[in-house]
Design a protein that fits this description.
four-stranded antiparallel beta sheet, 19 helices, 12 strands, 10% strand
Length: 601
């Protein structure tokens, strides 16, 4: 996990390496300050029975040691400031790269990979988890380097002053370490649960914001608020339990620090009163006592900081594991070596294809699919909800891979193509296609970044979108809100169709993409396809028979199988499902008023 995460440091290795160097210097200077303070006190304090130092000599001693102390303090301060600057640069850069690597990885995921992690979980990993890892990385560069060094320096200096008293601190350390480890082992399961509940919290927000129109239409604001409150309450409860335990760190550490200081003060006071007790350590006085207490506080403070590090690392460890899980996950669908980089034509062939969404799935979503579509043909697909119409067309651009059998485009197995090449030649207007925030021009140029304004107008006329675009005050420069919320459903669909046509694909797939436009506009779009892009293979999934009745070939799917196939006349003569759908819709159409030409249903 650590190795995977550290790959994202990259160009920030230099500040990441420089930071510990300054931390070593800071820790070293801080540990020398109490030592020279003790030397100063010893130098100006007269020995028992001796006369005090003359004022001039005392001043020189103070100035000498004062200069040393000021120098050490200045070096320590400068080192600390520089370490902080470099650590901030390294950690923020690391987080930036980590987010970039995660986002880039997600962009390469297949639909199956995204389904595995879920959208809300990926959002949590890109935000909360990365923030926690960033904070821990910065802490590791500074505190994790400084604390052990300062602890070791403090122990060495303590034993230099008085080994017997220094053992008081060494004896206390194992007890404190045991307490810290016990606390961490207790709270780790809470943090693991918290991140999963963060996912649920984000999912609740995502669903609510994405479906806010439905929520308001059904007056379900109170229900959604209660659902969010419950998810937020579960996160709060687990955090509260963990924090209650972690809160013991401070009081326990303070208790041990104070206890150690009292012991040292008691023994040192006795040693000062009765020097014969410490005959083996002559010269132990107030200065040495002050330094020893300072070193003791430094050592025990280091342990307290260690406990804070463990708390932060406990939180980020789970987040780091979740991030590494995404970074180490290989997409189910990748371009092969020596991939084919040209799609010859728009012919499509399904050969003994079977497909299911996961290995554990008990039933195939598609079963025994054999289908051949010639380049330039128009193919219509009908079927009820759950007939796997969308699943069928998603195998053509390799949004999913067939479980068994093979899919061919241009006479080549889709698995042999470079993914980018294949998907540029197979344009899909999905059932839930969206527009992104930006102008209409910017959205259309997703299909071709280099398209001229004239090309944009041409494809919009084909998709019957030019007229309503021109009705906007800003025309093609009209700003589209995120998700296309400021245009109607039919307008959004026509813009998405225009965007796909701009790709000039060899295969154009419309997944129920004219469901929100009226029948006459639908007819105009189909007529434009036939006249303007006759060489493009067109596969149209529709609910209305009228959208596909003039197709060269019509498929009727049921339960993931092709139950009927042929043109309109052949299927009508057969008298099967297609005829039932046609007659039912024709009768229904005769009873219903026609919508206005060019409008949206």
């Amino acid at each position: 996990m650590v190795k995977t995460l550290l790959k994202s440091v990259r160009e920030y290795k230099k500040p990441a390496i420089i930071t510990p160097i300054f931390m070593v210097l800071e820790a070293f200077c801080e540990c020398l300050i109490p030592f020279f303070m003790a030397e100063l006190i010893t130098a100006i304090k007269p020995a028992p029975g001796a006369a005090p130092l003359p004022a001039d000599e005392a001043l020189q001693v103070v100035l000498y040691y004062g200069a040393i102390l000021v120098f050490l303090a200045a070096v320590s301060l400068t080192s600390g400031v520089l370490a902080g600057r470099f650590a901030a640069t390294a950690s923020c850069g690391f987080a930036k790269n980590l987010r970039h690597d995660l986002f880039n990885k997600v962009q390469r995921f297949s639909f199956a990979n995204v389904d595995r992690f879920s959208t809300s979980s990926l959002v949590t990993r890109l935000t909360t988890d990365v923030t926690n890892v960033q904070q821990s990385f910065q802490m590791c560069l500074r505190i994790v380097i400084r604390v052990p060094l300062q602890f070791i320096f403090a122990i060495i200096m303590s034993f230099t002053i008085n080994p017997k008293l220094a053992w008081i601190f060494v004896t206390i350390v194992p007890f404190l370490a045991l307490i810290i480890i016990s606390i961490m082992r207790f709270v780790m399961p809470f943090f693991k649960r918290i991140f999963k509940k963060y996912d649920a919290l984000n999912e609740s927000v995502q669903e609510n914001v994405g479906g806010i129109r439905v929520v308001k239409s059904f007056v379900r604001e109170d229900y959604e608020t209660e659902k969010f409150k419950k998810a937020a309450g579960q996160v709060r409860d687990d955090f509260t339990r963990a924090e209650k335990v972690i809160a013991l760190n401070g009081p326990v550490m303070t208790l041990f620090i104070n206890f150690a200081s009292i012991l040292i003060s008691a023994f040192a006071a006795y040693a000062i009163i009765d020097p014969s007790f410490w005959a083996a350590y002559p010269g132990f006085g107030e200065g040495q006592l002050s330094a020893l207490i300072s070193y003791g506080i430094q050592m025990l403070s280091c342990l307290m900081m260690f406990s804070m590090i463990f708390v932060m690392l406990s939180m980020s460890l789970e987040g780091g594991r979740r991030i590494a899980e995404v970074l180490n996950c290989e997409s189910d669908i990748v371009s092969p070596e020596n991939a084919v980089t040209e799609v010859k034509d728009g012919s499509v062939r399904f050969e003994d294809v079977r497909f299911k969404y996961s290995v554990a799935a008990g039933k195939y979503a598609l079963d025994d699919i054999d289908l051949e579509i010639a380049s330039g043909e128009t193919v219509g697909i009908l079927g009820g909800t759950g007939a796997s119409k969308t699943t069928l067309i998603q195998l053509i651009p390799r949004l999913y891979d067939a479980t068994e059998g093979a899919v061919y485009v241009g006479g080549v197995n889709v698995k042999d193509y470079d993914l980018d090449v294949l998907r540029k030649e197979v344009a899909v207007v999905l059932q839930k296609n969206v527009l992104f925030s930006g102008t209409i021009k910017e959205n259309l140029r997703w299909g071709n970044p280099d398209a001229s304004d004239e090309e944009l107008v041409r494809v919009c006329k084909l998709a019957q979108a030019h007229e309503f675009i021109e009705s906007f005050p800003d025309g093609y420069d009209t700003y589209i809100e995120q998700g296309g919320t400021n245009v109607s459903g039919g307008q959004k669909q026509r813009l998405c169709i225009a965007r796909a046509i701009l790709r000039k694909p060899k295969v154009l797939i419309l997944d129920d993409s004219t469901s929100a436009v009226d029948t006459k506009t639908d007819a105009f779009i189909r007529q434009a396809f036939a006249e303007e892009i006759p060489d493009t293979t067109k596969i149209i999934i529709a609910q209305r028979v009228g959208s596909v009745e003039k197709a060269d070939k019509i498929l009727v799917l049921e339960g993931g199988k092709i139950v009927e196939m042929g043109n309109h006349e052949a299927l009508m003569a057969k008298g099967g499902i297609y005829r039932e759908i046609y007659e039912a819709q024709t009768k229904s159409k005769g009873d219903a008023p026609e919508t206005e030409e060019g409008g949206d249903e």
